Amino acid sequence: MSDRLIRLLVSDVDGTLVRHDKTLAEATIDAAKRLEHATVHMTLISARPPSGILPLAKALGLTAPLGAFNGGTLVMPSGDILTARHLSADASRKAYEVIRASGASLWVFADGKWFADDATNPHVPHEVKSAMVDPVLDGDWESLHGRIDKIVGVSDDKGLIAKLEADSKAAIGGDAEISCSQTYYCDITHPLANKGDGIVALCAAIGVSLEETAAIGDMPNDIPMLKRAGIAIAMGQAPVAVTTEADWVSASNDEDGVAKAIERILLPEVARHRL
Fold first, then answer.
1. Which H helix or E strand runs over 57?
2. Residues 116/107, Cβ–Cβ less than 8 Å
3. Which Gene3D superfamilies does its entry note (predicted)?
């Protein structure tokens, strides 16, 4: 239990807020509205671009700033960008070269668009649902350097992705944040575009302390924000590396774990502090 009144919930999206088929459950929408009614803000942080989180924020009735690209971009529910951190041109060129050499598919997010090199990759239909935009095939890659929000290496070969992550860290070093948002995605973003720094930026923008914040997620890239939050909640299907960092473990995303966390953990906590 937190020693402070919880005033903010920061939720991951894929594997957490939405179900496996990328849909948002009515139970989650209802729980989010109950949380806002209890004067607790809710926001989202995700590796998705703004286009992939704004419709969810609208459905949930959220009013606070949101964290796209793992917090590298802060955006209002209206779509207005507050801050945007881009990879340096040198870092993005190195990332491009490493991914090309690895054999993974290459995705680039820049200028509000998603650029892809292979329309046949099996993850393209899923990303269309997540990013809520269609890919631009190929394009002028060189002209994007200096404006890139995220570069992704995509492969179902777990060994390839593990090697890609290691090779990217060796090539780019501290000039980028390199992590896997899913077992098949190696994400490369600005050094501060990670969920640990992202939750700090969101709290500052909203005017809430970390101690007054709850965070919920399911993947290892969520661990930095779970460690910083006043209450850390893991999803039921999360790996052991994540659940061991949590104060609570909720149900899985297909069992509406965010809704259950709000109803069974956060709302009782808020009521306890207001007695």
1. helix 50-60
2. yes
3. 3.30.1240.10, HAD superfamily/HAD-like
Give yes or no: residues 179 and 208 share one domain: no
Same domain assignment for residues 171 and 97: yes
Q: Rounded to an integer, what distance in angstroms lies between the CA atom of residue 71 and that of residue 88?
A: 17
Whose structure tokens read 């944040």?
Answer: 177
Cβ contact 48:20 at 8 Å: no
Q: How many CB atoms lie within 10 A of CB 138?
A: 12
pLDDT tens digits for range 155-184: 999 999 999 999 999 999 999 999 888 889
Domain boundary among 162, 189, 216: 189
Only one residue has tokens 């969920």, namely 195
CATH of the domain at 158: 3.30.1240.10
Answer yes or no: are the C-beta atoms of 245 and 4 closer than 8 Å: no
CB atoms < 10 A from the CB of 177, how many?
29
> Rounded to an integer, what distance in angstroms lies between the CA atom of residue 63 and that of residue 206?
10
pTM score? 0.92
* Residue 107 host element (H or E): strand 105-110
11's enclosing H/E stretch is strand 8-11
**Cα separation, 50 vs 72, whole angstroms:** 11
Handedness of CA 97, 99, 103, 105 (dihedral sign): negative
| Radius of gyration of the chain measured on its C-alpha atoms | 18
pLDDT tens string 246-268: 999 999 999 999 999 999 999 99
